[in-house]
Amino acid sequence: MPEGDTVWRTAHELHGALAGALLTRSDLRVPKLATKDLTGRRVLDVTPRGKHLLTRVEGGLTLHSHLGMEGAWRLHAPGERWRGGPAYQVRAVLGTADRTAVGYRLPLLDLLRTSDEHHAVGHLGPDLLGPGWDPDEALRRLLADPARPVGEALLDQRNLAGVGNVYRSELCFLVRVVPWTPVGELPSPERLVALAKRLLEANRTRTARNTTGDRRRGNSLWVYGRRHRPCLRCGTPVRSAESGPAAERRVVYWCPRCQPAP
């Protein structure tokens, strides 16, 4: 499941492969972009913004993509077989003389003027992995609705950008609260913000996400995905439940002993 660390790593890899090179192939396989052609333009940079990817090219254009739940970008050498999924799942192809970037299962793909990027990502809160990270502003936004469950508030990218379903379960475990605890009742909300920053930074260069520091197989996450398995801290079986608004419900995990309900 792509979260801020995965998107940062994807942007880093795409930037290293494409930045500075001329596009020799451009194939945007969504109806509204079917006639758009970026061939002949030089890629300037690939920048992450929360869970969004901004690929900027010459001529003041930005290809805006979002990985959603199952999206991915894959890099291939010339002549190499594409390995990210069947052809019908391909949404974008950007090729240079040396590499080809293929976007699979992208739920969002748009082409906009670089000067208009704020229309696409301006609503986002401080980026946990961005150069302009502002912990005070992130904390202010998080606490703006004191009655909101902390699990929902963490997923709201308008508060702080980059936290997904995995990290919200892990963060709530680390600060010892259940995900439906009202934000206003958090004992030290500033610690939650600092932990979010620390976890995403620690995992941005890893292919296998780890929040426990334990490298043994099956012990990399405290509670996420561990339903009915023993808590790594106290041994109590981990529980799970659906949480969030009806249209955005996700499964959340917690330890009933380490995270007592309010």
List keywords for this structure.
single chain, 262 residues, alpha+beta, N-terminal domain of MutM-like DNA repair proteins, Helicase, Ruva Protein, domain 3, 2 domains, four-stranded antiparallel beta sheet, 10 strands, globular
Secondary-structure blueprint:
Blueprint: H1 4-18, E1 25-28, E2 43-49, E3 52-57, E4 61-66, E5 72-76, E6 90-95, E7 100-104, E8 108-113, H2 117-121, H3 135-142, H4 150-155, H5 165-174, H6 189-203, E9 239-243, E10 250-254
Antiparallel strand pairs: 1-6, 2-3, 3-4, 4-8, 5-7, 6-7, 9-10
What does this entry look like structurally?
The chain is 23% helix and 21% strand. By secondary structure, the protein is an alpha+beta fold. It has a four-stranded antiparallel beta sheet with strand order 1-6-7-5, with helices on one face. A hairpin with a 3-residue loop joins strand 3 and strand 4 (61-66). Helix 5 (165-174) crosses helix 6 (189-203).
C-alpha termini separation: 29 Å
Largest sheet, spatial ordering of strands: 1-6-7-5
- Envelope shape: globular
The helix content is 10-25%
Q: Helical stretch count?
A: 6
Order of helices and strands: HEEEEEEEEHHHHHEE
User: Which stretches are low in confidence, meaning pLDDT under 50 for 5 or more residues running?
Assistant: none
What's the CATH class label of the largest domain?
A: Mainly Alpha
- How much of the polypeptide forms β-strand, as a percent range? 15-25%
Please tally the β strands and state the result: 10
CATH topology of the largest domain: Helicase, Ruva Protein, domain 3
Q: Total domains, how many?
A: 2
Largest β-sheet summary: 4 strands, antiparallel
CATH architecture assignment of the largest domain = Orthogonal Bundle
Work out the radius of gyration. 20 Å
Mean pLDDT: 95
Helix-strand category: alpha+beta
